[in-house]
Amino acid sequence: MDQERRKTIIREIEHWQRSKLLPEHYCDFLLNLYLETGEVKEPVYLSGKAVKAIKTASGLSWLLAFGIFSLICFVVLHFNAFHPLLQIGVTASFVLILLLLGQRFRDKNEAAGIGLIGVGMLLMLGAGIYMLQLHGLEKWGWQVGWLGICSLFWVAVGIFARIPLLHLGGWIASFLVYGLLISRNANDPQWYEVQIFWLPLSIVFGWCSWFFHRWSKSIAAVLLATAAIVWLMPELYTAVFMEEQGWFQIQLIVKIVVEGGLLFALRKKWIAWVA
């Protein structure tokens, strides 16, 4: 049998084994049929791969691993004593490393890669807020501003790395920033004023979904989902930030019905944008 074809079959059987599509003993039987004499079966699960990596690691690899671990411990324990510029540089370096590792791992394991990228994004947000508090910048404007920067960065990374969930999360974080700004600058707005604050954004995002669908279906899908979320934001804003909530529950139900009706009536159009 051609070697490339044999390797392809083995990879497919290993995929069945990882995904539990066939019982374990069936997969072992099929692998034994296609493995050549003397060839050792590669571990399928992460634990097996980790054990093999530990067994085959050289002394230099062990030294490097413990050196990196010691460096991380040193940075964490002495982070507060660093100069602010060094703190920013260290944080940015860790975030960049996590992003690069996540993007690299995505080719082999999509979930693991996205998990590393997500940890990097959370590290960026958490470390930034911690440094603001560490240096006495505790006013709400600093923290809201940093959240706004993070949200824009998440949107950019989500678009260029093609991670729709991160793209959508960036927009949701930006809505939180927008809501906080409204709450600080609008004193007791009327219910119709709250609608005016948010509903034009829903129309803009819906138009952007139509505009971008010719270049990227995934971006169009995220923008359409964002438009649907913004449509309900006036009621969510009322529930969270306003003391006089009025009949916002009825408004929410009516707007959900209206939104559902619009999505149903226009389903042939927006499905073409996102699918």
Description:
The chain crosses the membrane at residues 59-79, 85-102, 114-134, 140-160, 165-183, 195-212, 219-240, 246-266. Keywords: Membrane, Transmembrane, Transmembrane helix. By secondary structure, this protein is mostly helical. The protein folds into 3 domains: 1-42, no CATH class; 73-168, no CATH class; 186-274, no CATH class. It is 80% helix and 0% strand. It has helices at 3-18, 24-34, 46-56, 59-77, 84-105, 110-134, 140-160, 164-185, 191-212, 217-231, 233-241, 248-265, 267-274. α8 packs parallel to α10 (217-231). The chain is flat, with a radius of gyration of 25 Å. The model has no long low-confidence stretch (mean pLDDT 81).
Brief descriptors of the model:
transmembrane helix, membrane, mainly alpha, flat, 80% helix, 3 domains, 275 residues, transmembrane
Question: What is the topology?
Answer:
Blueprint: H1 3-18, H2 24-34, H3 46-56, H4 59-77, H5 84-105, H6 110-134, H7 140-160, H8 164-185, H9 191-212, H10 217-231, H11 233-241, H12 248-265, H13 267-274
Helix pairs in contact: 1-2, 5-6, 6-7, 7-8, 8-10, 9-10, 9-11
Short description:
The chain is mainly alpha-helical.
